[in-house]
Design a protein that fits this description.
alpha+beta; Butyryl-Coa Dehydrogenase, subunit A, domain 1; Butyryl-CoA Dehydrogenase, subunit A, domain 2; Butyryl-CoA Dehydrogenase, subunit A, domain 3; 3 domains; eight-stranded mixed beta sheet; about 45% helix
């Protein structure tokens, strides 16, 4: 087990992978990450700002983006390499996922040329962070139930509503907000639109939420925040179709498989030489499960690169990888307890992060529902892979 073994399969560009590893090995970045891992259990850790900026300066934060927007013009598999390596090296990634995978994918795919030029280079450089303002207190992951409204004004739009469970929002400059255009249609999904909202707007209020998660969550209240027409992404009412089409690497489960591998390898090292035969058998089984989970994630990456990643296949990969990573974190705590943190540097961080893994990018229940619906409709989420 270990990073060198788990990443030795020829699933992506080995030169790019090595470049990312060498970048993360720089002493100033290791110092930043060591400080994050030592965050007390009752405090939220800081985003790895220096790490993001250093990767961004090398074109490694969004390598699949076009060079004019701060990338390298490579395929989506390069983004998956970065996501996996960050997970393998214990780098908190909510800011990168929200900025690059979610907001960035949406802007590059559906934004105007002016929007892309304004935001994307700064995002890829690690200098500007975006929050994702989708979830609401009473809507959860069901955007069809959202109540945040967008009202037409003389010069743009007025946004009113409350968003919650938004990660790293205090460090973000902008948020992509999902809101319902008033009077557009009675269809719960066809009225959804997406807007770029500056989080320093005087009518936008950001409040921290108490949480065990190592990365802070926030509630964002929009009290009639007025934005101009340039804030609208795509056409009014096109938000739902944009969100369902802009699948990023987070939905492939690769980053969750990376966490599972890192945490399992640390667990094995922590109990090496003092495990029982029964425990050894359990760890061997988990090692096989992590290896197979990684392959499932990379199959999803390959399908995404070909434009053939269906919703059910993505849901299956995300569900399996996130559930497995969560199980390993909980099992490590069962075996090691608080005293194990000396041999397992990420133990407390892993246990705090584990509950959110099956909520991020859609809950496990949503993923299973997506797979079940596809199967019951007579489809096969893997039919194009066989």
């Amino acid at each position: 087990m270990g990073i060198s073994v788990s990443s030795s399969l020829p699933l992506a560009d080995s030169d790019l992978r090595e470049e990312v590893r060498q970048s993360l090995a720089a002493s100033k970045l290791r110092e930043e990450l060591n400080g994050i891992w030592r965050t007390p259990p009752h405090e939220a850790c800081s985003p790895p700002r220096l790490t993001y900026r250093e990767l961004g300066a090398r074109g490694l934060l969004a390598p699949h983006w076009p060079p004019e927007f701060g990338g390298r013009g490579t395929g989506v598999s390069a983004s998956a390499v970065v996501a996996e390596e960050l997970a393998l090296h214990g780098v908190p990634d909510s800011a990168r996922v929200n900025t690059i995978d979610n907001a960035g994918t949406t802007l590059l795919s559906f934004g105007t040329g002016r929007q892309r030029r304004r935001y994307c280079p700064e995002m890829a450089a690690g200098r500007v962070t975006f929050a994702v303002l989708y979830t609401e207190p009473h809507a959860g992951s069901d955007l069809g139930a959202l109540t945040t409204r967008a009202e037409r004004t003389e010069h743009g739009w007025r946004l009113t509503g409350t968003k919650t469970w938004n990660a790293t929002t205090s460090d973000a400059s902008y948020g992509i907000c999902a809101a319902r255009v008033t009077g557009a249609t009675d269809n719960a999904y066809a009225a959804i639109s997406l807007f770029v909202v500056p989080l320093d707007h005087p009518a936008v209020h950001v409040e921290a939420l108490p949480t065990v998660n190592p990365e802070q969550f926030f509630t964002v209240r929009l009290d009639g925040a007025e934005v101009d027409d340039e804030a609208l992404i795509g056409a009014p009412g096109a938000g739902w179709s944009m969100l369902t089409r802009a699948l990023g690497t987070e939905r492939t489960g690769v980053c969750f498989a990376g966490r599972a591998r890192r945490w399992l390898d640390q667990l094995v090292r922590a109990i090496e030489g003092r495990g029982t035969p029964v425990l050894a058998a359990e760890l061997t089984r988990l090692d096989v499960e992590v290896a197979s989970a990684r392959l499932l994630g990379w199959q999803a990456v390959a399908d995404l690169a070909r434009g053939q990643l269906g919703a059910a296949a993505a849901a299956a990969a995300k569900w399996w990888n996130s559930e497995l990573a969560q199980h390993i974190a909980h099992r490590a705590w069962d075996l090691l307890g608080p005293q194990g943190s000396a041999a397992f540097p990420d133990l407390l961080m892993a246990v705090r992060e584990a509950p959110g893994l099956t909520l991020a990018a859609g809950t496990s229940e949503m993923q299973l529902s997506t797979v079940a619906t596809d199967l019951l409709d007579g489809g096969d989420p893997w039919e194009e892979q066989t």
